[in-house]
Amino acid sequence: MIYIHVPFCRSFCTYCGFYSERLCSESGHLPIDSYISSLCAEILRRREEILAAAACNTLYIGGGTPSLLPLAALEQILKALPLSGFDEFTIEVNPDDILKGGLSYSLGLKALGVNRVSMGVQSFSDSELHWMGRRHNASQAVQAFRLLRDAGFENISLDLIFGQGSTENLSSGIDSLLALSPEHVSAYQLSVESGSALESMLEKGLVHLPDDSVCAAQYALLCERLSAAGYEHYEISNWAKPGFRARHNSAYWTRCSYVGLGPGAHSFSREREYRSWNSETLPSWQSEGEQLSAREVREERTMLGLRCCEGIDAAALPQDRLAAELASGRLCSCSSHRVRIPETHWFVSDDIISNLL
Ligand code: SF4
After folding, report:
1. Does the CB atom of residue 64 touch ligand 1 within 6 A?
2. Ligand 1 near 188 CB (within 6 A)
3. Do 133 and 48 share a structural domain?
4. Ligand 1 atom 3: the closest Cα is on which residue?
5. Whose CA is nearest to atom 5 of ligand 1?
6. Is 61 in the same domain as 196?
7. Cα(64)–Cα(18) distance, rounded to whole angstroms?
8. Are residues 13 and 86 in the same domain?
9. Which residues pair with 91 in a beta bridge?
10. Structural domain boundaries enclosing 351
11. Alpha carbons 19 and 11: distance in angstroms, whole number
């Protein structure tokens, strides 16, 4: 299970808290070459670790904006990896890059072995996309989706952000999304990152966000509409048509070992219960890590397990609090020995999980 972080964006979205550098093509200075050389050196250095994490044979190229990378750069990365023929190979893309690259770029991704595309649409309202600083409008997102289909992609995931606009806009956005019939949907509540452009826009009154009760109603609307359309709500923020759960992300939630490559990427060894992370620096980056304590392992299992519809083993929870949460309906049994947070309470999962740690 390999994750590669591509730390470039053409411009920054107002809400973004991910590590990324602005790729300034106007200046003629493209740091892609030095990034690729450092990445290939890291792949070589961590070859054994990469091979050891192949039990879950997935590759995920995320960012940032991986679709900013030319096909030749992606090919160079793939050639450096000691593994190929991934069961699931996902790349995150932005609609504007897909349109700019035309059919040849999407066909090129397919030829490189990408078999799942995750596209950040975020909203189908042009005014919302505008203040969020997205580089595309709703109709371009639809065109990009169709282009990916024309290129033969049969497993496409679309990202939406709720809690950032009116429920009416979200509802018509869900209509637009369902009309495209993607295999997978991820929906995240907008969060205001400290130091983000959004934070200062809010302070200046340039943007108004819905309050928590509206956000809860929007989450409930997503749950209801996606379920009615045949999507399985298998994790707090993720829905899939039958057979299309994200294998890579599911492996994170079940605590499989993974190797994260590139600046800002995280890695985890299940065998050693060891977590490490790369510094958010270019053109090269360093790694540091920590041994997880038994308590941290237990808490992480609880936090990740309760995000998923399969829940966790009831025996792993403090029995007095388990009984109280079951009695209050904030937990329910999902098999003879497993418990989960019911979908109706997933919106307040943080509170429930912290009570069980
Ligand atoms: S494209 Fe993604 S990573 Fe880049 S600024 Fe926007 S949200 Fe952040």
Report:
1. yes
2. no
3. yes
4. 64
5. 12
6. yes
7. 7
8. yes
9. 61, 117
10. 311-357
11. 13
